[in-house]
Amino acid sequence: MHTGKWWWEMQKKLDEHCSGGTIVPIIISLDKTQVTMFRIKTAYPVYLTIGNIPKEICHKLSYGSHILLAYLPTTCLEYIINQASHHHAIANLYYACLCRVLALLKPAGLEGIPMHSRDGALRRCHLLFATFISDYPEQLLATGVKFGECPKCDIEAKDMGSNTAPFHLQKLREVLDALATLNHGNLVFVHACTTAGIKPIIHPFLEDLPFTNIFWAITPDVLHQLYQGLLKHLLGWLSAACGAAEIDARCRQLSLNHHICLFTKGITCLSHMCCFIFGIIIDVHLPNNLNPCGGYSTSYILCNTLVTAQRHFTHSTRH
Ligand SMILES: [Zn+2]
């Protein structure tokens, strides 16, 4: 992480503020998680780690380099019947909680905290919010960007699959200026937010984080945008080529195995099917009598799938 542009830029900004500080990049990850398989019981943990820990340590679960910072409420607020009010209430609850959880980062980022490094030297460490790892819906909540748009850059929603369409990081200054019009009346506020390309959100946590650009902090959602996105497309393609009934029938015929979960009702309605998708389609009858066992057809399927999927998910990879 210390070789990235972000750290160098931040060091310059910090030195303008007060020189000689050491940066401790804060990495926050959160995801709503289902904790049972048979009831809808969810938990909403927020984890924290820092960018100064080498990745070979950070990636090992047993070293405990991620600490559990908080649990956000998972209430659905189902008693609010009006849908717009419901969305607003959920979003405001999320902002209120995250503001509270991250409140200490403001003084810790601006003034720094004396801490000993491994070599024994006492350093003035500035804790700066650097990376926000979460799913697309939470990225939208964090940035206030509308559904379907990129939470990181200003690309048009219709150009998301383009390989060449230019894009630039969202402009934080404009967003902050729009949010600052909250006291000028509702109409002015809503209009300013729409012009800046965000939803009218009240005091999101990005307002109070020193030196932080939330749009820089957003990382591509690898699980949903690349992996599941690709699989979803693959399954759609296979359903069109072989028929959903055929895929589901083959799924029911799979024999028991230690490492895979069998879905006896079929998989075309599911999302966790990557372990055995290839086993299911290996000798399926394709339209125009294409032979799926022949090297040509199999590679044809995969190439076709990958080319189309690549177009769809190019944008995530471009980031
Ligand atoms: Zn983007």
Question: What would you note in describing this structure?
Answer:
This protein is an alpha+beta fold and 319 residues long. It folds into 3 domains: 141 residues, no CATH class; 56 residues, no CATH class; 94 residues. 41% of the residues lie in helices and 13% in strands. The chain has a 5-stranded mixed beta sheet with strand order 5-4-1-7-6. Helix 6 packs antiparallel against helix 7, helix 9 crosses helix 10 and helix 9 runs antiparallel to helix 12. The longest helix has 24 residues. The protein starts with a helix and ends with a helix. The mean pLDDT is 81. The chain binds zinc ion. The site of zinc ion (ZN) has 7 residues, from loops.
Helix fraction by DSSP (H/I, runs of at least 4) = 40-55%
Q: Widest sheet: strand order?
A: 5-4-1-7-6
- Classify the beta-strand content into a percent band: 5-15%
Topology as a string of helices (H) and strands (E): HEEEEHEHHEEHHHHHHHH
Say what oligomer this is: single chain
Secondary structure: number of strands: 7
What would you call the shape? globular
Could you give a short description of this structure?
This protein has 319 residues and is an alpha+beta fold. Helices cover 41% and strands 13% of the residues.
Draw up the topology in text:
Elements: H1 5-17, E1 22-30, E2 33-34, E3 42-43, E4 45-50, H2 55-58, E5 67-71, H3 83-101, H4 105-110, E6 113-116, E7 122-133, H5 136-143, H6 172-179, H7 186-196, H8 214-217, H9 222-242, H10 244-252, H11 277-281, H12 295-318
Parallel strand pairs: 1-7
Antiparallel strand pairs: 1-4, 2-3, 4-5, 6-7
The structure holds zinc ion.
Zinc ion binds next to loops.
